[in-house]
Amino acid sequence: MENRTVRDRLSALRAFMTERKIDVYLIPTEDFHSSEYVSDYFKVREYFCGFTGSNGTLLVWQDGAGLWTDGRYFIQAQKELAGTGVTLFRMQDEGVPTIEEFLTKQMGQGQTLAFDGRVVSARLGMRYEKALAEKGVRIFYGEDPAEGIWRNRPAFPAGEVKVLEEALAGESVESKLERTLSRVEQAGADALLLTKLDDLMWLFNLRGCDVACNPVAMSYGYLEKDRAVLFLQKKALEDSVRKVLAEKKVQVEEYSSVVSFLKALPEGKRILLDSRFVSYALYKTLADRHTLIDKMNPTEALKAVKNPVELEHMEEIFLKDSVAVTKFIFWLKSNIGKREITEITAAEHLEELRREIPEFIGLSFPTISAYRENAAMMHYEAVPESHAVLKPEGMLLVDSGGQYLGGTTDVTRTIVLGPVTEEEKLHYTAVAAGMLQMTYARWLYGCTGRNLDILARQPIWNMGLDYRCGTGHGVGYILNVHEGPQSLRWRYVEGVGETVLEAGMDVTNEPGVYVEGSHGIRIENVMVAENDVKNEYGQFMHFKTLTWVPIDMEAIDEKQLTETQRAYLYAYQRQVYDKVSPYLSEAEAEWLKKETRADQTAILK
Fold first, then answer.
1. Residue 292 counted as domain residue
2. Does one domain contain both 208 and 77?
3. CATH code where residue 443 lies
4. Is pTM beyond 0.90 here?
5. Phi, psi (deg, nearest 5) at residue 241
6. Which of 162, 249, 399, 595 shows its CA 20 to 30 Å from the CA of 378?
7. Where is the domain boundary, 254, 285, 303?
8. How does DSSP assign 44-108, residue by residue?
9. pLDDT number for residue 1
10. What is the rounded end-to-end Cα distance, in angstroms, of the chain?
11. What is the DSSP secondary-structure string of 157-219?
12. How much is the pLDDT for 605?
């Protein structure tokens, strides 16, 4: 069945392309800052193809269109693209060309590739330039393809900006600026252009609301010795915020003036920037008149290592959040089959429990509440038009988190609602085993996430299965739920750097199994890297767990566990009971005691 709405929008875009003599239009999923999630104003790719996932790039040409997305979204994209005339290209699948390979093969001599240069990163834009140079392809980057086509487009985001008090931030703006500028100098630069929104919020101890679930404000920053310039939409600033920034000697300029500011800089500066996040358009503004040093933003590495104040607040918040999730699991298991519960109402009840926590601000991402086969879609979203009613059978996967004054949480549990198959038990047990092996990992300082990923993946690989994503990502502090540069992933990607795991870096631990049309299983905790013993071999390290939510023993087949894995399981479950039970009702605590087998001896101390 044709999707006439999307086809009409693509027809309008192709008419625009003909008028401008454009052969291929590239539309990514980004805003002016290469953010992972974007406000509704920037959902141009979604507007032109109907795919709602958070990652994907659309290419449009006169007689076709293609969407490239990753393994998290294959099932979802296949459904949402049906009838649109847009072909799905499954990234990293064997035989599927990359966007560069496709463009290099399909584009003819002297043709024109177009994209909005403000929403394509400098790194990607230059890669396309280089790949297509031999064919003399012209790059046109001066227009927004939605302009004049997207009627009733949502307004450009401009929400209120607030100051994060130093008692919560744990470090002053002055100290952060000093540490950042020290690294700028070490990189051989005399200035830093900063465009990454969560880095800017961290650096200036601010929080905003311009992206749903991400407490960031549209902003740019330019730093030199003795000068810090912050570009914000002034209409979003209360006088109290202006006053605080003035006291910190931060020069505030209008957000839209960043291009004119950069053009007015004296020629010959050595400017540090991160081409993954600086837009192609801004890069081009600077490239001819200055020396550009392309390195990771120093703020990204500084922000990733949580300070003692942040860690203290995180421990408190993660425990409160874990109590809410544990209460939710008890409620769900107690009521399933006795009243109607849907994927949506389950998610709503969990949010209500979180709202009872005094520090709660909002969700850290839209809750994924996915029943049975829906859970095979890693980023499934239940909506009023399409969702499942839960039954006392199978499993419900719930991936959720909260923003709090004191931390950002991210936790997944797959919950048994009734009888499950032997295959589901086998898969659940392997996922739990992998998650626990990572939980109790020990390693020598100097390891990156690629050294450790096998610990979580091994029990799943042993079954000839895999999950098409990393095992873990960093988590922001009252910021974005996905944070770099730390991660846990096995795949080597050329040009993508790896980061040594430092004490104070937090990371998720979330292996899974996803079987299309049947079920999906994920278990996720957040952990913090800490120093362990130091001896003649070097500094050993381990993880400290922040998330204390029970693993569902109804889906565990202990015969499939090694003695070590079983010891890990009982040790973790006992800690869950000890930490969470004091905050539960009598009935909830009695249930948790049975759920965690806390009356049995913990094997591992």
1. yes
2. no
3. 3.90.230.10
4. yes
5. -70, -45
6. 595
7. 303
8. HHHHHH----SS-EEEEETTEEEEEE-GGGHHHHHHHTTTTTPEEEETTSTTPPPHHHHHHHHPP
9. 65
10. 59
11. P----EEPPHHHHSS-HHHHHHHHHHHHHHTT-SEEEE--HHHHHHHTTEE--SBTTB----E
12. 44
Encoding tokens for residue 478?
């009252």
Residue 352 is predicted with a pLDDT of: 98
Domain boundary among 303, 328, 358: 303
Residue type, 335: N
| Shared domain check, 241 and 375 | no
Q: Indicate the pairing of strand 472-474 with strand 442-444.
A: unpaired
Specify if 180 maps to a domain.
yes
Q: What average pLDDT is seen over the chain? A: 95
Low-confidence ranges of the chain (pLDDT < 70): 1, 494-497, 601-605
Tell me how many domains the chain contains. Answer: 3
Q: Say whether both 388 and 406 belong to one domain.
A: yes
Residue 154 lies in a domain: no
CA angle 118, 92, 85 (to 5 degrees): 65
Give domain status of residue 156, yes or no: no
Residues 567 and 603: beta-carbon distance below 8 Å = yes
**Structure confidence at residue 472 (pLDDT):** 96
The H or E element spanning position 429 is helix 422-439
Closest CA to 163 of 266, 73, 252, 265: 252
Same-domain status, 285 and 315? no
> Is the distance from CB of 370 to CB of 397 less than 8 angstroms?
yes
DSSP 326-393: HHHHHHHHHHBTTB--BHHHHHHHHHHHHHTSTTEEEESS--EEEEGGGGGSTT---BTTB-PBP-SS
pLDDT digits (tens, 9 = 90+) for 169-227: 999 999 999 999 999 999 999 999 999 999 999 999 999 999 999 999 999 999 999 99
114: which 2 tokens?
Answer: 């177009």
SS (H, E, C) 222-283: EEECCEEEEEECHHHCCHHHHHHHHHCCEEEEEHHHHHHHHHCCCCCCEEEECCCCCEHHHH
Give, in order, the Cα–Cα distances in Å from 464 to each of 408, 459, 467, 513.
34, 9, 11, 11
* Tokens of residue 508, six digits: 């998720």
Are 67 and 128 in a shared domain? Answer: yes
